[in-house]
Each structure stands twice: as C-alpha cells, then as structure tokens.
Amino acid sequence: MFFLLGGDRKKKIAQNGGTANIERVKEIFQSGRFPVVTTQCLDETRKVGKVLGLVACRGYDSEQAFFGMAARAVNKGAHAIIGYQENVAFHPDGSKFFTCYGTAVQCETPPPPRRALPERLESA
After folding, report:
1. For strand 96-107 and strand 80-90, is the pairing parallel, antiparallel, or unpaired?
2. Is 72 contained in some domain?
3. Can you tell me the distance from the alpha carbon of 28 to that of 14, in angstroms, rounded to the nearest whole number?
4. Domain presence at residue 2
5. Contact in structure between 69 and 56 (CB atoms under 8 Å)
6. Domain assignment of residue 65, given as a range
7. Other Cβ atoms closer than 10 A to 79
C-alpha cells in the first residue's frame, strides 16, 4: 500500500534534499531569469498572470532556506516569487533558524530569453 501512494519516491527526494534541483534553481536565479521581489508586482513589462500559491522553506542556513523556497516555486511552474519575506529566529544556544516565504506566480508575458553570463565583469 505504501508503494501505491508514492510515499517511497517522496521519501527518497526528501532524504537527498533535492540537491540537483537546488543547484539548477541557483543557476536560474543567479542568471536573472527567476526574479524574487518583496513587492506585489514585478515591473511594467511583466504582469502577474496566475497566482500559484505560497511557497516556504526553513533551515539552519539562509541559502538553504532561500533556494529551497525557490525550488518549490519552480516545481510548481512559477516564473517568479513576489511578496518575498524572511524571518530569523535566534536560539539561546547561539544557532539561527531561517524561514523564507513568498507567493509563486506565473507571468502573462513569457520570461525573457536566456542570456549568456559574462565570463568576467570588467571594472569601471
């Protein structure tokens, strides 16, 4: 019965943390193709077409929490995250616990075409 519900597959993905997916999302975000903004809209050229819902992730590392949230949005088919917020909880033992959340959305206009990243940035 456990196999029929697909629980085994979900368990395997959770155990390895979906690191391949997070690395892909890092690349998409760092290339500028997946915006994450604190405002309720992107810009004049890209309007929100469909709201996919809240995405959130928690972790002891801020990067893990942020890119985990972005990976969940990408898995839903999102083009961007709007209304991004984060919280940090400080524990008495000195550790921090990060929570990142926002609203995953699809845009009316398609995302901009993929641009190659410059090999190196020239100083001004």
Report:
1. antiparallel
2. yes
3. 22
4. no
5. yes
6. 10-107
7. 23
Q: Is residue 101 part of a domain?
A: yes
- Only one residue has tokens 């997070």, namely 22
CATH number at residue 43: 3.30.110.70
Q: Which pTM value belongs to this model?
A: 0.73
> Exposure string (b/e) for 43-70, b if CB count within 10 Å is 16 or more?
eeebebeeebeebebebeeeebbbbbbb
Q: Which residues pair with 91 in a beta bridge?
A: none
Q: Which residue's structure tokens are 């992107």?
A: 42
What is the spatial distance between Cα 104 and Cα 76, in angstroms, rounded to a whole number?
8
Residues 9-68: tens digit of each pLDDT: 444 444 344 666 888 999 999 999 999 999 998 887 888 999 999 999 999 999 999 999
Say if 114 falls within a structural domain: no
- Asked if residues 42 and 107 have their Cβ atoms less than 8 Å apart, the reply is yes
pLDDT tens-digit profile of 82-112? 999 999 999 999 999 999 999 999 998 765 5
How many C-beta atoms lie closer than 10 Å to residue 71's C-beta?
A: 24
Say how many domains are in the chain.
Answer: 1
